[in-house]
Amino acid sequence: MKTIFKTKSQEPSAKTRKQSNLSISLFFLLSSFFFSLFSFAQVKDTTKVNQLDEVLISAVRATQKTPVSFSNLDKKEIAPRNLGQDIPILMNYMPSVVTTTDAGNGVGYTGIRVRGSDATRVNVTINGIPYNDSESHGTYWVNMPDFASSVESLQLQRGVGTSTNGSGAFGASLNMLTDNYAKASNGEISNSYGSFNTHKHTVKFSTGLMNDHFELAGRLSTLKSDGYVDRASSDLKSYFLQGTYVAKTTLIKALVFGGFERTYQSWNGVDAATLVTNRTYNSVGEKYSDSGDFQGYYENQVDNYNQDHVQLHWNEKVSDYWSTNLAFHYTKGKGYYEEFVDDWFYTNIYWSEDSQYSFLGLNPITVDGNTITSTDYTRRKWLNNDFYGTTFSANYKKDKMDFVIGGGYNKYDGRHFDEILWAQYPSNSQSGDIYDSSNSVKTDGNIFAKANYQLDAQWSLFGDLQLRNVHYKTSSNETGVVNDNFNFFNPKAGLTYEVNKQNALYFSYARANREPNRSDYKNGNPIPEKLNDFELGWRHADKNVKLNANVYYMAYKDQLVLTGQLDNVGSPIRKNSGDSYRLGLELDATIMIKDNWMISPNATISANKNKDYYEDNGTSVVNLGDTNIAYSPNFIAGNNITFLPLKKLQLTLLSKMVGEQYLSNNDVKESKLESYFINDFNFSYTISPKSVFKSIVFSGLVNNIFDVDYVSNGADYGGGYVYYYPQAGINFLAGITLKF
Predict the structure, then answer these.
(1) N or C end of the chain: which has fewer CB within 10 A?
(2) Looking at the predicted structure, is the pLDDT value of residue 412 above 90?
């Protein structure tokens, strides 16, 4: 059996066990600053407290007047299932969404695709601040465990959407708003436990508005799981602290949040034969003798990473018509991935040069008259980076006009390096030696202006113009010398026609451009991608029914499509495909059948094609014609059936179907991932005691209630070497939340 061995260094998945002292210092600094502010805030007024927090994301969030396709998810909807699984898994039942998890149970490394576009194409912001990693464009939710407990609401815009900060949105954009400030003091203790020894413990507090102006709130969480896949364990910790000052026209909010993760990896997947006999098999960390005899696992084949975020927001209502938002941010990430490099395994199974002295920049040595050119060794693949910048916006809203002008400037400075810890034949290398060290610097600046203008009682016009400049510079043995500068112009326009109070039609066009990521440079000579996105939709809303229908046509030029392969550091290999497109119909609804019955179905039917796709078979380049784009199912559907038999008891059946999809772009039968249909059951019951606690909430989640054997992700290396990521059968999580 051929096993593909992969690592995830050179991306933000290189992790560290060492907790940053910055977190503690910032806690004390933030607390001191706001308590000092409070001591001076002695002005007594009877200001009506408005939820000015929404201003934090108003510049990037769509409304019913915006001609784009979007869905919202708020804290109330998230809470019943917030028992330890990551945000992508909590979003699984939204339209056009497909999720996956390496460990198989929704904890640890998780991923999301929207309309077939992978996570590197989903622009993610937190309070309007970019979260995607600057180099890989990826989002690593494992770095922010239990962040859902600090999210007030989120919005997923499908397609290009509206202008936002950070990486370009080529499949979707996800913006999250963290917890609003609270008027009254409160606290919360949540504990959950479930299958695979999964358990989460969360403590939250809020002082409420003190002196009518100031609030201090925070959260501490710890989350552990053994994972469904063998040894796919997670040890996760996170914190969230925010201080808020609010006055009649002012909102100042400072946040410090972050997380630490230690994860035993399960990146390899399993081949088809092993999938049948041993679904939970994990080859990561295997050790062999020089003759190929299995000798167990390397215990410290783990990912360690610490990431801390600081945000400062200042919102000001300048007049009845003008409001402004200014934000500064800083993110510190540092960590490593440690692994044992087995010479026999890399030479005979993986067929890699990683164990060669030449790969390490060393010369062969002679031992007992034999020339040694490779060795067993252990290494840590490090990443140490800083990301900082500012975002800003001004909003004018009067009568028929809603106008926003804004932008941002951000800089990323990251160092990649590998450290040798031990070598069987050390040659001239010593413990602590560094090799393949490189620095990367990326700057990203943009300005945008967008407006909704009400032409008359029925017609409204939307316009959005963005200029973006990106400069990326790096140099390493893998990427070579890169020093690229990109200037992008991204226009958007649309119309909305209100047929009546219940129905509205919209049409929009959006142009997007996007730079390659670090892995693209490692695997070829990429060129920027271009996209023309056309959206046509209908919205209906009455007392009992909300319905959205949207037709999209996304025409790409030089799209960097996933090939199905992963490179030697575990990053997906992509290549420019020339012309390609995604054409689809999205439907979603919320229907109140009775006062205590509600259903929320959604479905996406699509065609995702490469035009005249060329494949290099090693001897010649062959035109395969129109082929399916990898990882793009033609059918995705979801449904929630919610029943309230009692006022404080909620029962929900959640269903998800994902059609078959290919793991490569050449339509080979062996590369096809079969469709699957799974169902989860969720319940929540609230008790309201007369003393001590405001409420006691019992909640439970039974995942995959029909115990379906299914696979949500895979990799295809060509030549029949296909690997799968199996997901857990029936499993459960149960929790209790005490609110006071």
Answers:
(1) N
(2) yes
